[in-house]
Amino acid sequence: MERVRFNSGDFVILRGLDKRADLNGQQAKVLFHVPEAARYAVRIRSSREEVRVRACSLRHGVYRPDLAKALHDGSLDALRSWIDDGGDVDATSAHNQTKTSDNAWQFSTGHFPKLSLLAAAVMGNHVELAQYLLASGADPNLQPPEEHLTAGGHSMTALALACDSEGGISRAGMVKCLLDGRARVDLLCTRGSDDLISPPLHRAILHLPVGALVHVLPLLLSQPESPSTMAMAATMGSRLKCNSRKEWPLGAAMTMYSKKYGAKSYEQHNKPDLESEEAQQWTQVIACLLEAKADPNERTEGSLALACLSPLAVACNGPHPSLVSLLVSHKADLSCLDHDLRTPLQIAAHDSGTESLKALLLAGADLQYHSPKGLTALHYTAIRNQPKAARVLLEARADVNARFENIVDNKPDYQTPLLIAACTDAFEVASVLLEWKADPDQQAHYYIGECVAQFQGGWGPSAARRLLSQGDGSGLVKISPLALAIQQANSVRMVRLLLDHGARVDSNDGLGNLPIDVFGTRGHAFDPEILQLLTARHDELELSSNTYTACFDADAYQAERAAADAERRRQKSEREARLREQLRN
User: Fold this and answer.
1) Cβ atoms of residues 145 and 87 within 8 Å
2) Which domains does the chain have, with CATH numbers?
3) Which of 223, 228, 473, 508 gives the lowest tally of CB atoms within 10 Å of its CB?
4) Cα-flanking dihedrals φ and ψ of residue 461, to 5°?
5) d(CA 168, CA 548)
6) Strand 50-53 relative to strand 39-44: parallel, antiparallel, unpaired?
7) Long-range contacts at 268-277 (CB < 8 A, ≥ 24 apart)
């Protein structure tokens, strides 16, 4: 008598039917066993048709928790018993599987429903089990059905899971096993929890530890489908349309490198070791992708902050001369703009070192290009106070007095690098610029309507109308480096440096005000030593100003501050006295 191998209610897969070949591969549910006919009555899941088939034409379509636990433990005997007992090599789990902290399998709702036997072996990193399943005919490219994906589940192939190791396990042996079993590298996969739609290559770059990635990447790139995979973009955040973005493999590698070694990380983590083994491995990964014909000019597509970020722009965001040279040697575009309308040379002047600048200049980067904000690469060295970078650009014949119109916003027009250095107290850059004969009296233009509150203490529209009537009708205030060093930086050393290089204390802002008159508007904010330097120069030139005369000295300035403080205290006491009187009445 035939041994019963299937129970009522079991889900099975039909295989090897000759007369009803149209049913092969269909899922069915076992209804009951017919011993006298040596057959099972089953109901086809899709058509609801009932048929009777022999046991040899049935395979278990869903494996149970006890087998899943055995797979996780690496039990080859349990797997052999399942297949010998009629289990389908492509059977999927009945429950969702996740790992607990003690690496035991749990069955819950959420993470990886419909997990195949091969996928379960991959998640446990059991190469021997995976080899046995592939030799038994398991499909390495099996993905859950479409209706499962639309319900918010996953579509991960076994190879995608092998490349998605967040636990730090090296998966090179498993990846090689799957590729030898004809796993495809060009299938898009997604996992509902992270909303990332990507091929296995992209998942390996994002999730594998770089020590494992350097071994896995050559295996993935050696496949026939690899050229098409390099052109496939991963879509991230597709469910939140406002945050969605598309990224290619090289861009993903550059992003991962920048997270740890970019300019922001470089400042926050106390200068990470760029010569470390990990940093060198990331450089090796990027070089491997470029050798595999990755486009060095592919740009991330997405939100404004990510738009137009090319690999070269990312490499220039920090001291990474080897990466800059590598990308330049592969014909990276030297004129591509980032979201702030900066070229790679300008980004490097702001965030990178001299070696990156030299590599870009040697490749032919445009030294004189100015952004719509009127800024050249030399301006950006002043913004970040990069004196060595400023010297490299000046030696390459950058214009030390470059000034252009700002057509983007209502901020200052026609600023020179020295004006920015004076405003930001970039003393070292200012010293280099003045050494290279920067004009200490070249003025920038400010729109009166924008700067009334800043320069006149918030007097409002009436002050703007009065200033416009006093000026030349252009609506502009002309600010010199000396005035900016006082008003913005309040820097004694910057004021002294400018005066030592011939800055004029009688430079007029177009409204009849001199640099010393800044003290008349916001005197309590400034260092008295600056006033001493200015009044001494006024004495030499026998000048007077709208607010202070040449004989006004620091003692008088301090006395005036003390008198003003006393007057405020007296007024406060009077107000409190009146309030107490009102309360008594």
Assistant:
1) no
2) 444-567 (1.25.40)
3) 473
4) -60, -35
5) 70
6) antiparallel
7) 274/319, 274/320
